[in-house]
């Protein structure tokens, strides 16, 4: 049970209903405890990150690693099927979630060590060069924003103890 009452879909205002329809999930009902404009901005950033040129497999590895480091069962639930659909095997998912990066290819290891450092400190230094060699400028900026977005998401979900949805919500609606 959430620590604060989530917005009730039956009583949402027009702007709130529009945000909720973009991604009808408990996450958005939690976001709507702020303002519909904030919920929309959050969803806009999520959509932009999903549509970025970053490799989809890498994107999902990053999200699953942040979810694991943040203890966010909600993020995992929303992304595990997406991860499988973009080609991650069960073994790769386990390696990502358990931090067994030696089981992954060198490029994936470099990125995930970078993610690990970003989650633990605001300025990645030790892992920067290796990740930069793999990702380049655009990829680096995108991964940093992706990590921040999902850290923010995890903190909202975990602090408010937002309940899992009955199942994953389609990201196609964003």
UniProtKB/TrEMBL annotation:
InterPro entries, from UniProt? Answer: AhpD-like, CMD-like
Q: Which residues form the Carboxymuconolactone decarboxylase-like domain?
A: 36-110
**Family matches, as SUPFAM superfamilies:** AhpD-like
Matching entries from Pfam families are given as:
CMD
Which Gene Ontology terms cover its molecular function?
Answer: peroxiredoxin activity
Report the protein name in the record.
Carboxymuconolactone decarboxylase
Name the source organism.
Mycobacteroides immunogenum
Supply the source organism's classification: Bacteria, Bacillati, Actinomycetota, Actinomycetes, Mycobacteriales
């Amino acid at each position: 049970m959430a620590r604060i009452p989530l917005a009730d879909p039956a009583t949402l205002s027009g702007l709130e209903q529009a945000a909720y329809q973009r991604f009808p999930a408990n996450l958005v009902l939690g976001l709507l405890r702020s303002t519909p404009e904030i919920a929309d901005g959050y969803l806009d950033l999520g959509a932009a990150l999903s549509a970025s040129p970053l490799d989809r497999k890498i994107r999902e590895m990053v999200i699953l690693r942040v979810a694991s480091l943040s203890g966010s069962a909600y993020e995992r639930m929303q992304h595990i099927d997406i991860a499988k659909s973009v080609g991650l095997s069960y073994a790769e998912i386990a390696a990502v979630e358990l931090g067994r990066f030696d089981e992954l290819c060198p490029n994936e290891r470099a990125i995930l060590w970078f993610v690990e450092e970003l989650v633990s400190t605001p300025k990645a230094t030790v892992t920067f060069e290796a990740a930069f060699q793999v990702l380049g400028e655009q990829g680096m900026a995108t991964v940093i924003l992706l990590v921040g977005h999902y850290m923010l998401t995890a903190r909202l979900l975990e602090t408010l103890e937002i309940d899992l949805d009955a199942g994953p919500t389609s990201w196609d609606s964003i």
